């Protein structure tokens, strides 16, 4: 028996940070169904074809971040495709998405679209810059949200006169996916507590994940007498922004 063998996860996300959280769950035994558009599938499948990428018989990018999953091609713009997705949502435990707000609205993948279909469902949402404010619909990758906007690009320079450093691909996506995995597991745990059946929401984003690293670095670099106060100030100003939401009862049933 594996830890999450009775958990069904719908991976309705793209590229790395969202899907990799589902991959971690699959490593613990969860059944993960990845929803992809018909034809080429998730655009992440095309990464191996870029010029300069080392040649290999296997798509190592895909194996790294999408191993163990079942793939299902659905055209969510068509009624038939949407009906199949709704039937899966009705019996799933976790729904993961990282699509921009306008796409979620157009495809009816927002929390208010999905949660009414399953009162036990945990809705895990990843956004580059948070779910509120003027940048809530802005797109971004880890190189922009986690690396640049968090301040890491500047913070890890050898000296103040050094040029800003560059990140490597997916350098921030994977730690962000671990944070999202933790949020989902917390929501799953809370769902099993009958006295805590109220809405459960955990927030994080790539930018917040990077800011956390910056806070740790600044704390380490300061004199010991200043560290506690700087950490408190940083914590008070921190507003995380990934949501793992569970609304509904806590009764346990089969997800198969």
Task: Briefly characterize the structure.
This protein has 256 residues and is an alpha/beta fold. The chain contains 10 helices and 7 strands.
Write the layout of secondary structure elements.
Elements: E1 8-11, H1 17-27, E2 31-36, H2 60-66, E3 70-73, H3 79-89, E4 94-97, H4 101-107, H5 111-114, E5 122-125, H6 142-149, H7 152-155, H8 173-191, E6 200-202, H9 206-221, H10 224-236, E7 243-246
Estimate the strand proportion.
5-15%
- Largest beta sheet: strand ordering: 3-2-1-4-5-7-6
Helix proportion range: 25-40%
CATH architecture classification of the domain at 8-139 and 172-207 and 240-246: 3-Layer(aba) Sandwich
**What's the name of the CATH homologous superfamily of the domain at 8-139 and 172-207 and 240-246?**
Crotonobetainyl-coa:carnitine coa-transferase, domain 1
Principal-axis shape: globular
- Biggest β-sheet: count, sense, barrel? 7 strands, mixed
Helix run count: 10
Helix/strand structural class: alpha/beta
- CATH topology descriptor of the domain at 8-139 and 172-207 and 240-246: Rossmann fold
The end-to-end distance, rounded to whole angstroms, is 15 Å
Q: Could you list the spans in which at least 5 consecutive residues all have pLDDT below 50?
A: 217-243, 245-256
Q: Taking all residues together, what is the mean pLDDT?
A: 82
């Amino acid at each position: 028996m594996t830890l999450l063998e009775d958990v069904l996860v719908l991976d309705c996300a793209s590229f790395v940070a969202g899907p990799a959280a589902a991959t971690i769950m699959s490593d613990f035994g969860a059944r993960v169904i990845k929803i992809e558009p018909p034809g080429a599938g998730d655009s992440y499948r095309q990464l191996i074809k870029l010029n300069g990428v080392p040649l290999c018989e296997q798509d190592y990018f895909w194996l790294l971040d999408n191993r163990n999953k079942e793939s299902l091609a659905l055209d969510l713009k068509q009624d038939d495709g949407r009906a199949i997705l709704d039937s899966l949502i009705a019996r799933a435990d976790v729904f993961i998405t990282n699509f921009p707000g306008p796409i979620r609205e157009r495809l009816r993948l927002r929390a208010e679209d999905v949660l009414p279909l399953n009162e036990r469902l945990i809705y895990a949402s990843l956004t580059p810059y948070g779910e509120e404010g003027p940048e809530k619909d802005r797109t971004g990758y880890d190189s922009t949200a986690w690396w640049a906007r968090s301040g890491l690009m500047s913070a890890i320079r050898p000296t103040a006169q050094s040029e800003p450093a560059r990140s490597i691909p997916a350098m921030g996506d994977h730690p962000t996916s671990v944070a999202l995995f933790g949020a989902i597991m917390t929501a799953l745990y809370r769902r099993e507590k009958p006295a805590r059946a109220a809405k459960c929401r955990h927030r994080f984003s790539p930018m917040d994940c990077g800011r956390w690293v910056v806070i740790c670095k600044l704390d380490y670099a300061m004199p010991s007498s200043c560290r506690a106060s700087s950490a408190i100030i940083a914590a008070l100003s921190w507003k995380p922004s990934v949501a793992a939401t569970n609304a509904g009862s806590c009764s346990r049933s089969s997800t198969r």
